[in-house]
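Section 3.1 - Work completed
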Amino acid sequence: MNMEPFEAYSYYLAIKLHFESDSYDAPKYNFKTSAKPSSFWKRKDKYHFAKLGRKYDKGPDIINYYISQFIEDRKWVGDMMTDEDNYTKWQKRTQALSYTFENDINTLAEQVDSFEDLFAIETHPFIVKEYMSGNICLETVVILNKLTGFMKAADRTITETILWPDVSRKIRKYESFVNFDRKKFANIVTKSFTK
């Protein structure tokens, strides 16, 4: 059964608000927004939501699709429709999360003298620079933040206002959607940094 276009739009709006607003938490509010069908039907891009509703007919599927797009800064539904590759890459990374994380951690361990060096702040923490350079994935940064809480210190220390606010928000907001076994992933870190 197909998802109604307005429902696909409502999920989109919830994920958009989640990633762009400091106060809205989509999972906490069960992906509910104040969207009205009357305003949706006036939108010029409504046919995109109809197409997505046919393709991803379950709530979790379309939510994951939108997340995969927003973390890659594809925020307009029309842009999402032209690059479905983001979703495929996201699925591969998240389905093999421990493998991806271990590879990223091993890469990082080769570049620094100690685990603490990952979070050393010059303009940005080393680990965030590596993410922004495309050397490690966002999930690794999120997991390390959940394990260490390094973002609190970074947010207090960093005064740069061009890149940092958006990168910081993306990391913090994506945390709600990255689920992992804390003990297993902490062991991966320990193993990589005690060689």
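Second construct:
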Amino acid sequence: EIRHTLEPCQGAQLVTFHNAFAYFAKRYNLKVAGVIEEYAGKQPSEQYLKNLVNKLRSLGIKTIFAEPQLSPRVAELLANELGAPVEVLDPEGTSNRSSYDALMRYNAQTIRQSLCP
């Protein structure tokens, strides 16, 4: 089901909060173009964010993905620089996505709707 959902998105590029989606991306033939947190749990430096914005701009990135468990502030700043929306991918699950299957379906649908409608 997830493979079918993401089939039109082959090779699409994701920008995520951290590298939580690397295996997911590889399995479904997506690419992680960048991560907001250079080091997990640490605020990215101003220089890192400048470099990331330049890279993402050159790649034509259209969406930034935040996470419900973390503050969206840095994702929103990055999105504003790029003129891109912020969408939410969930690496851990919330009350309405309490099963692994529901979580994976939610993330796949969010990626499809955001990157390859």
